[in-house]
Amino acid sequence: MDKKPRIIFMGTPAFAVASLSALLAAEMNVVAVVTAPDKPAGRGLQLQESAVKQFAIKHQLKVLQPEKLKAPEFLKSIQDLQPDLQIVVAFRMLPEVIWSLPPMGTLNVHGSLLPQYRGAAPINWALMNGEKETGVTTFQLQHAIDTGAILLQDKIAITENMTAGELHDTMMEVGAQLLIKTLHGLINKTIEAIPQKTVEAASDLKHAPKLFTKDTEINWQNKIHDIHNLVRGLAPFPGAITKIDGKTVKLFSTYIINEKPSESLGSFVTDGKTFAKIACSNGYLGLNDIQWEGKKRMPIVDFLRGYRKV
User: Fold this and answer.
1) Which H or E run includes 303?
2) Nearest CA to 181 among 134, 137, 123?
3) Dihedral angle, C-alpha 46, 50, 53, 58, nearest 10 °
4) Are 278 and 224 in contact (CB under 8 A)?
5) For residues 6 and 83, is the Cβ–Cβ distance under 8 A?
6) Which residues, 6+ apart, have CB-to-CB distance to 137 below 8 Å?
7) What Cα–Cα distance (Å) separates residue 242 from each residue in 52, 219, 252?
8) Is a pLDDT exceeding 50 seen at residue 75?
9) What is the spatial distance between Cα 206 and Cα 115, in angstroms, rounded to a whole number?
10) Measured distance CA(96)–CA(76) in Å, rounded
11) Contact (CB, 8 A) for 288 and 236
12) 184: part of which helix (H) or strand (E)?
């Protein structure tokens, strides 16, 4: 293909904006953007536009916001645009009638080194499992989720205290650049898609399902490194949950103290002024900040000014 393909981009959150921005910077031919319908939010329940829609409008791109992806009118809108390729970044699962439509197929940007961490929360689970490395994969969509043929991958090192928010921001930029590299490869026909079945057989596959409340609850019987990984893997959202003095609290930033605890598991230990830590089976978990039930997230020093043990 000598000319640049006609591209429909599909995405909703800020994570997807970086990829859309990279497409425009690379002067790719984005003929339309598909994003989630406006939703009521905030105290006034005013309709809020997605981050992708706001960016698309600012750059005068055509925006489609289907309620149902199988709706005949939406399918006709896609057909009328005659896309050569569709790109999906942080969007809903597409029906086959949509992802199979363009002659070049539909390309997805996923936040892991597939086939590892297929699913909705790859960033969180990689950190929660204590991985030292993750990455981004571009691949071709097919029927089963996150199983299509791999196009390109780029690795990202995970540091000891990196949070999900920090990894998200790094991955957002790495993924955007990998997307552009992938498009150039497809246009120039220098990329060979690799079926995942050729690599998954040699791997112990780890999965990244949607997070539920049970996944965020701290078990103080676990090893201190596992608890620290849970906290950073859930920061800044949704936060790791525990109870202190009978009240539900969230932890977002912690550090490991390698001292043998004399208190019972889960005990909240503090001098009431400068530090707080929680007893684990093989050390203490130091707290940098905390969100007490009914309060905002705050540095531990600020919290201790008003804390009185029950």
Assistant:
1) helix 300-305
2) 137
3) 70
4) no
5) yes
6) 109, 110, 112, 113, 114, 150, 151, 152, 153
7) 35, 8, 11
8) yes
9) 8
10) 15
11) no
12) helix 164-188
Q: How far apart are CA 104 and CA 183, in angstroms?
A: 11
Closest CA to 181 of 221, 153, 222: 153
Beta strands in 176-288 (DSSP E): 240-244, 247-251, 254-257, 268-270, 276-280, 283-287
**Residue-range domains of the chain with CATH:** 6-200 (3.40.50.170), 214-305 (3.10.25.10)
Provide the 3-class DSSP secondary structure of residue 285: strand
Contacts of 49 (CB under 8 A, 6+ apart): 38, 57
- Which candidate, 60, 28, 2, places its Cα nearest to that of 179? 28
Query: Does residue 2 surpass a pLDDT of 70?
Result: no
75: Cβ contacts below 8 Å, ≥ 6 apart: 97, 98
**Whether the predicted model's global pTM rises above the 0.85 cut:** yes
pLDDT tens readout for residues 142-174: 988 999 999 999 999 999 999 999 999 999 999
Q: How does 155-193 read in b/e, with b if 16+ C-beta sit within 10 Å?
A: ebebeeebbbebbbebbbebbbebbebbbeebbeeebee
The β-bridge partners of 240 are 251
Strand partners, 8: 32, 86
What is the spatial distance between Cα 273 and Cα 134, in angstroms, rounded to a whole number?
Answer: 38
Got the DSSP string for 39-106?
EEETTTTEEE--HHHHHHHHTT--EE--S-TT-HHHHHHHHHH--SEEEEES-PPPPHHHHT-STT-E
